[in-house]
């Protein structure tokens, strides 16, 4: 069964300052997504926060970039912004750059990371979230997870990983993309992802095309133009676990150079 995982986030108001999200905003989001699940739009969902970012984690069967799902997320953020304004929260609705939904939340302010998968009997997925960071914040962790055999021994001994992975890298300033195959193009890959403020890993796939990880690469300062004072605000990443050894996916965060 094909299942789509959509992780969509927006800063709709900070509590206090940029440090946290207000419980009433989370409660309003919970109400909207519970109604969407009841109507059959969603399989399941989870509401959480990262700093002052409201995070909507949703599973459904409508595919990526689906207008219905994106519009529902947008309406949820708009509704939560109304709560934020009533509470006089800091920067209420500051990630909502447009007045009305136009078919897809990409380019409208919210951060988006989505993947469509053929669900396995056991399908653990890890979602990393960060705020106040660069678009390429996950470059090193994703590289170590899927290209460094000293971190992920499965790249050497596991048949389903030995062929390596394909890394899609985006230039967030020029809106261009390029794909590198590892291990043979590791050096070329490192040239780009070593500059995380401009180049960000958008997705990682097996050499057979099966999605392994995705991340958001939106950059608000570029979306809104030179008049928008707010710089890089968010980054999301979702990855499928390809081994029972969860620790290897968390090892990069223990590296002193990250």
Automatic annotation (TrEMBL):
<comment type="pathway">
    <text>Carbohydrate biosynthesis; gluconeogenesis.</text>
</comment>
<dbReference type="Pfam" id="PF01950">
    <property type="entry name" value="FBPase_3"/>
</dbReference>
<dbReference type="InterPro" id="IPR002803">
    <property type="entry name" value="FBPase_V"/>
</dbReference>
<dbReference type="GO" id="GO:0006094">
    <property type="term" value="P:gluconeogenesis"/>
</dbReference>
<dbReference type="InterPro" id="IPR036076">
    <property type="entry name" value="FBPase_V_sf"/>
</dbReference>
<comment type="subunit">
    <text>Homooctamer; dimer of tetramers.</text>
</comment>
<dbReference type="GO" id="GO:0046872">
    <property type="term" value="F:metal ion binding"/>
</dbReference>
<protein>
    <recommendedName>
        <fullName>Fructose-1,6-bisphosphate aldolase/phosphatase</fullName>
        <ecNumber>3.1.3.11</ecNumber>
    </recommendedName>
</protein>
<keyword id="KW-0456">Lyase</keyword>
<comment type="similarity">
    <text>Belongs to the FBP aldolase/phosphatase family.</text>
</comment>
<keyword id="KW-0378">Hydrolase</keyword>
<keyword id="KW-0704">Schiff base</keyword>
<keyword id="KW-0119">Carbohydrate metabolism</keyword>
<dbReference type="GO" id="GO:0042132">
    <property type="term" value="F:fructose 1,6-bisphosphate 1-phosphatase activity"/>
</dbReference>
<keyword id="KW-0460">Magnesium</keyword>
<keyword id="KW-0479">Metal-binding</keyword>
<keyword id="KW-0312">Gluconeogenesis</keyword>
<dbReference type="GO" id="GO:0016829">
    <property type="term" value="F:lyase activity"/>
</dbReference>
């Amino acid at each position: 069964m094909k299942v789509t995982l959509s992780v969509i986030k927006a800063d709709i108001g900070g509590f206090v300052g940029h440090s946290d999200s207000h419980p009433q905003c989370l409660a309003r989001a919970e109400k909207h997504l519970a109604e969407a699940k009841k109507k059959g739009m969603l399989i399941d969902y989870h509401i959480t926060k990262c700093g002052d970012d409201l995070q909507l984690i949703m599973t459904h069967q409508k595919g990526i970039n689906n207008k219905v799902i994106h519009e529902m997320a947008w309406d949820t953020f708009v509704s939560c912004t109304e709560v934020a304004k009533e509470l006089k929260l800091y920067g209420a609705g500051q990630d909502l750059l447009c007045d009305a939904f136009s078919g897809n939340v990409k380019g409208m302010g919210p951060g988006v990371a989505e993947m469509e998968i053929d669900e396995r009997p056991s399908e653990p997925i890890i979602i990393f979230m960060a705020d106040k960071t660069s678009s390429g914040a996950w470059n090193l962790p994703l590289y170590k997870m899927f290209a460094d055999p000293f971190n992920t021994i499965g790249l050497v001994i596991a048949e389903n990983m030995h062929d390596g992975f394909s890394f899609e890298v985006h230039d967030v300033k020029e809106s261009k993309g390029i794909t590198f195959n590892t291990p043979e193009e590791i050096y070329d890959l490192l040239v780009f992802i070593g500059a995380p403020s401009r180049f960000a890993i958008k997705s990682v796939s097996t050499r057979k095309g099966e999605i392994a990880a995705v991340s958001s690469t939106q950059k608000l300062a570029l979306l809104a133009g030179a008049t928008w004072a707010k710089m890089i605000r968010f980054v999301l990443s979702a990855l499928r676990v390809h081994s029972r050894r969860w620790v290897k996916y968390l090892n990069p965060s223990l590296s002193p150079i990250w």
